[in-house]
Amino acid sequence: MVLLESGGYHPASTHDRFELRAARLLWNPPRFGMTAPDGSRPVVMVSGRGVGGSTLINTKIGMRAVAQDHAKWHAASGLVNERGEPFSAADLDPWYEQVEQRMGVRPRTDWTHSVRTVERGFRAVGASLEPVTSYTNADCESIGSCTAGCPTNAGGSALNRYIHPAMLTGRLDVRPGTLVGRVRVTGEGTDRRVAGVDYVDGDGAHELDADVVVLAAGSLVTPQLLQRSGLAALDTPSARLIGRNLGTHTARMVHGVFDDVMDTHVVYPLTAHCRDFARDEDGGFIVEATTILDPVGLASNLVDEHGRPLWGERLASVMRRFRHMTALMMMTNDSNTGVVEETGDLTGRISVPIPEEDQARLDRAHEFCERVLREAGAREVVSTGYITSHVQGSCRMGSDPRRSVCDANQRMWDVDGLYLGDASVIPRTLTYNPSLTIMALAERLAAHLAR
């Protein structure tokens, strides 16, 4: 088995909490989803880069899909299980259990001063706050370096929990620094099947022959590779959906500035969450607590009340109180209205129009977070613009080829032997953080390929 990765190989021994170095080595340059023709209020889209992908730099929240997610999946793409029944929790639970055991998912009850501070605000507005579950073990030193790479290996990642063990068997050939440019396909019609991939590395251009290819380049790049390979041009309903139905799980970080020192940058980020409004009928958003970006990232993402970047003395005033700030992370359910179109550098042209119902959720979530922070004692509230690291669904899976790009086993309807193994297959945006579901689907796909 060969693993091709465009980024580098960066194990825990290389992680040092240097923000700008991590941004260059472990993060892709941000992409921007346009919400309006004039470019105002874009959604900043961030993702990890390297062997292990975004699990190298995420906050390790491990949550399962819930009932409303499965219902949306079936409605969107006709997804059913092997018995022809609507896909449900029972169809993923065994795979979740495998992932949770391997990754070490546990509740985070070690709440710090910043969480206890905002807890007062949640109580004051009649809302609940409870521990998150995350894939971190007892070696976690709560130093806040998750998004710059965990230096202790306490945080689970695809690299240290899956890829390293596979490498030790000698049956996995990992090739970092390789950029796949095209998927090669032979045959026509029902005889169309995958033949391999073309890629470029430091030694030049290469062809790699393979009977089975699993694309896992993420929801923004996987559809572009399929488009570049000519598969979106096939005259089938399935092919025309490549790059469509992108979901964003759009978020904002809402910061309170307090009299007390919070030092949110040196704790484990996001140990608690409020799930009171998670169902669409209850509001359609969740709130996680507490977190803060590292200084350069924070200064680059703060906006004023009109969505314009903070600048000058106001930005300087906020940043001088960095140690007194703590943030709530609001994330909203969405309608999967986004579209990804291929560009030569695979940055993509990304549009994410925001329907009225989605905008209403964003507004309600922000108003709620501001109210909580004020009740907790914040002297000032300042927020980021729209951001996401949870893009999903640009090549949705399903049981109806008229409404999906790949089948229930994640094999493309139009190409035998070509599978999709990332968040692009998720039919509708998940209520909670998607990483556990992405890994559960990958476990399920691996079992299918083994059979």
From TrEMBL:
<keyword id="KW-0274">FAD</keyword>
<protein>
    <recommendedName>
        <fullName>GMC family oxidoreductase</fullName>
    </recommendedName>
</protein>
<dbReference type="InterPro" id="IPR036188">
    <property type="entry name" value="FAD/NAD-bd_sf"/>
</dbReference>
<dbReference type="InterPro" id="IPR007867">
    <property type="entry name" value="GMC_OxRtase_C"/>
</dbReference>
<keyword id="KW-0285">Flavoprotein</keyword>
<dbReference type="Pfam" id="PF05199">
    <property type="entry name" value="GMC_oxred_C"/>
</dbReference>
<feature type="domain" description="Glucose-methanol-choline oxidoreductase N-terminal">
    <location>
        <begin position="39"/>
        <end position="250"/>
    </location>
</feature>
<dbReference type="InterPro" id="IPR000172">
    <property type="entry name" value="GMC_OxRdtase_N"/>
</dbReference>
<dbReference type="Pfam" id="PF00732">
    <property type="entry name" value="GMC_oxred_N"/>
</dbReference>
<feature type="domain" description="Glucose-methanol-choline oxidoreductase C-terminal">
    <location>
        <begin position="371"/>
        <end position="442"/>
    </location>
</feature>
<keyword id="KW-0560">Oxidoreductase</keyword>
<comment type="similarity">
    <text>Belongs to the GMC oxidoreductase family.</text>
</comment>
